[in-house]
Amino acid sequence: MTKNLGPGPAHRSETTSAAAPVGGRPGRHFGAQSYARPLAGLATVLAVVAIIALAIALFRGSFTKTVPVTVISDRAGLVMNPEAKVKMRGVQVGTVESIERRADGTAALHLAMDPEQMRLIPSNVQVDIASSTVFGAKFVQMSAPEDPQPEALRAGQVIQGEHVTVEINTVFQKLVNVLDKIEPTKLNETLGAIAQAFNGRGEKMGQTLSDFNALLAKIEPSLPNLSHDIETAVPVLTTYADTAPELLTTIRSATQISNSIVDEQANLDAFLISSIGLADLGNQVLGDNRQALTEVAHLLVPTTDLLARYRDALRCGVGGLVPFAKSPPQYSAIIVSAGLTLGVERYRYPRDLPKVAAKSGGANYCEALGLPDLPAEFVPPFVAGDVGSNPAQYGNQGILLNSEGLKNWLFGPLDGPPRNTPQIGMPG
What are the residues whose beta carbons fall under 8 Å from the beta carbon of 229, sequence distance 6 or more? Predict the structure, then answer.
């Protein structure tokens, strides 16, 4: 609303607003500040910061439970940093928590392992420090051995690292060490000598390379055979490696034998000279009696065959005499047992000729009798053999009257043929 305050050259006007002043609103004081919007803004900023911190913590695995494992390596490598990955079969199973330099120059890598993966890793796992490239970042590579143990990797276990990937600084260091040992003057002299040696021999070198190329062309068809020979040589070399201790022991024993021969060479010379003299004497003896020895050998063949045939019986019989030889004498006097036996049928030709047809049964029969060790009160069995003469063929054992002899004694020899030509039964 505008008011006119009066006429005049200068007209003053006053403008007023119809809205009520802020301080005039019910329940509010004029000039007081509101805290709602600043608090809402601060809460929004804090929420954003908390979300970012939570994402970072989740990314770093701060809320993931880990198990500590230590790896001792000769060196950690140039680009081995904390938070490096620990892999096995291409799967991440943990991270490198920290790297510690030890007093002996080695490095201790403290790993934070995933407890869910620990049960799948054997306790004798092999650990290498590897990298994808020469300049790439390092990571811990775990691999299962050929004979994994049934026990799983446990918390706090210390593993010895085996290999560290070769780095470019190592190559440079080795090269610098080599160059430090080379004297420029001697290197210049060496290169000059090599250049002088090659000067004017280009054609010969070219011919040598050409011949070498032809040789390789001839060898190329045999490369499969060479490859097969190399593959076959692996088990052979493995066998030699397994038997190396025994071979070395044999070589050491051979060395001791050689030393003994050297120490006793005088006695060995005397022994060889004596052996030569004995051989000469033996040659003379055998040469002079060669025919006689040949005849003796031929004559001994039937005897040796017979002994070989009855070897079991001889062994059994001689073995039975051994107890008598070892036992003390049973009596202190000589006992003679004598008696008279009744006469038997007289011998008649050719029916009573001896015949070799009896069999004793060999060694089995000998063992059946209990020889060579006989028990006390042993009575040998009666053996009936086919020997040609049967003393009981007439069944008239006892005193026989020789009627033919009696007639010759009373009347003298009688003319004519005998009355009992077949000699059957009683004579006469």
Answer: none
Burial 93-132 (b: 16+ CB within 10 A, else e): bbbbbebeeeeeeebbbebbbbeebbeebbeebbbbbbbe
Spatial distance between the Cα atoms of 141 and 163, rounded to a whole number of angstroms = 10
Phi, psi of 100 (to 5 degrees): -120, 130
Task: Provide the CB-side half-sphere exposure for 347 (13 A, CA).
Answer: 6
Strand 67-73 to 158-160 pairing: parallel
Q: Name every residue whose Cβ is closer than 8 Å to that of residue 115 and which is 6 or more positions away in sequence.
A: 65, 66, 67
Range name among 7-21, 299-313, 317-331 with the lowest pLDDT average: 7-21
Q: Could you tell me the end-to-end alpha-carbon distance of the chain, in angstroms, rounded to an integer?
A: 205
pLDDT digits (tens, 9 = 90+) for 85-140: 888 888 888 888 888 888 887 888 888 888 888 888 888 888 888 877 766 678 88
Question: How many CB atoms lie under 10 A from the CB of residue 391?
Answer: 9
What is the 3-class SS of 124-136, one letter each residue?
A: CCEEEEEECCCCC
Evaluate whether 69 touches 159 at the Cβ level (below 8 Å): yes
Phi, psi at 141, each rounded to 5°? -105, 120
In this structure, what DSSP letter does residue 342 have? -
Distances (CA, A) of 251 to 237, 238, 262, 268: 18, 19, 16, 22
Residue pair 122/151 in contact (Cβ under 8 Å)? The answer is: yes
* Euclidean distance between CA atoms 39 and 82, whole angstroms: 40
Q: Which of 381, 386, 384, 385 is nearest to 366 (CA)?
A: 381
**Phi, psi angle pair for 125, to nearest 5°:** -65, 150
Structural contact between residues 128 and 144, judged by C-beta atoms closer than 8 angstroms: no
Q: Within a 13 Å sphere around the CA of 335, how many CA atoms are in the beta-carbon half? A: 5
- Asked if residue 411 lies in contact with residue 382, where contact means CB atoms within 8 angstroms, the answer is no
Beta strands per DSSP E along 25-165: 67-73, 85-88, 91-101, 107-113, 126-131, 138-143, 158-160, 163-164
Give 304's pLDDT tier (boundaries 50, 70, 90). very high
